Amino acid sequence: MALRRFPEGFEWGAATAAYQIEGAWNEDGRGLSVWDTFCRQPGKVFNGESGDVACDHYHRYRADVALMQQLGLQTYRLSVSWPRVLPFGVGEPNEKGLDFYDRLVDELIGAGIQPCVTLYHWDLPQALQDRGGWANRDTAQQFADYGTVLYDKLGDRVTRWVTHNEALITIAFGHLFGVLAPGIRDARVAGPALHHVMLSHGLAVQALRAARPDAEVGITHANTSYEAVDDREESLAALELARDFNTRAYHDPIYGRGYPKTVLAWYESQGGALPIQDGDLDVIAAPTDFLGVNLYSRQRVKADPSVSVGYRNAPPTLPVLDMGYEAAPFALGDFVRWVSAEYDRPKIYITENGVGDDTPKVDGEIDDHLRIDLLRGFLTGLHAAIEDGCDVRAYYVWSLLDNFEWAFGYGKRFGIVHTDYATLERTPKRSAGFYSDVIRQNAVDDDGT
Ligand code: GCO
User: Fold this and answer.
1) d(CA 359, CA 322)
2) What spacing in Å lies between the alpha carbon of 398 and ligand 1's midpoint?
3) Which listed residue (166, 227, 326, 405) is catalytic?
4) Could you read off the pLDDT of 254-273 as tens digits, one per residue?
5) What's the CA-to-centroid distance between 58 and ligand 1, angstroms?
6) How far apart are CA 213 and CA 207, in angstroms?
7) Which of 29, 119, 223, 266 is 20 to 30 Å from the Cα of 242, by its Cα?
8) Domain count, the chain
9) Domain that holds residue 435
10) Is 166 an active-site residue?
11) Is residue 35 within 8 Å of 420, Cβ to Cβ?
12) CATH number at residue 40
């Protein structure tokens, strides 16, 4: 197979998130997050599992960084647990919590791995949720103040910051469908929460510019490459509605376009009008340095006037993966082309892309060839999009380790490294070797598509 070489200086990394890997849920002064609460509600998480222990990264971070170095990672995307740093979300920082991230950053830099720090990967302090959480406008400024605590402590070494991970999921899954923390199912709450999450991003960008003017900052969104089931006018209109609600709602304001009218109208119709105040949209549109793209699949959509948003997802036509979405490796390149054209070719980091594949360990080996095949396909499509002029500079595979997959508990494995949850032993999978080769060559062997 031909080798597709990535541009000189392209960066290769892996991503994780605090609640999914750290454990130590009640150690060294960490406060409660909405996920600690959610996991303790019967029926919310598969098998009643939680991130209490997870991968115990809090205690094993040195060995994990050594593993990253062994794999050849050039950069590593982590998230900070807000309640570990500010147990009640505000007030005096918990020095032991800050010290963990201080040591982790030093370990990464000592290993020649550039940290990329996400401020928020869904673990809101429960104390703030008790005061309304994202539906309370105060949380937006409290988020920026939390960011300043990190910028001050880590900003002399961390130069790449992500404000939010997947605001869509925070809002849709956490506040509309109720299937993720905080488990709310109320559009009257979700609308204000959406706006305050976006406002908090803008305030956190402003705070970074004040504290660390030389750093780079962006936001990471959950994405799907949407396609119409056919080229009938109603289907094409359904496609644009899907993009409005799932993509433009979270990207347009960042790029100074405000919210899509369809989204504003829908939330108003549901009693959850977005409480936009004068100046808010300018704050949200504070210039950013990159766009973080997370993507796992594509979704075909069709018109359906019987539902309030006017479209619905169409049945799959490709093999369906363990996570319930289609095996569609072409989706990454397709979406990168679309988002580049839609938003005037921003600098892009692929901040998450990977495969849920539960291939077991047999005789000490994990032969996860499905993950390798799909990663090869994703990267082939990404390379083609870069060749077509998209400005993609880095790729973070999700994930370094098998970890806590939210409501799926430990039932879904996304790591290129296997985690034995009984012993917490890490075992690189076959895909880890594949990925190390990609990093070393800065190239992927073409998947022939
Ligand atoms: C997400 C989250 C990750 C998930 C990953 C696999 O994109 O949903 O950022 O925390 O674990 O995507 O589903």
Assistant:
1) 11
2) 8
3) 166
4) 999 999 999 999 999 999 99
5) 20
6) 9
7) 119
8) 1
9) 3-445
10) yes
11) no
12) 3.20.20.80
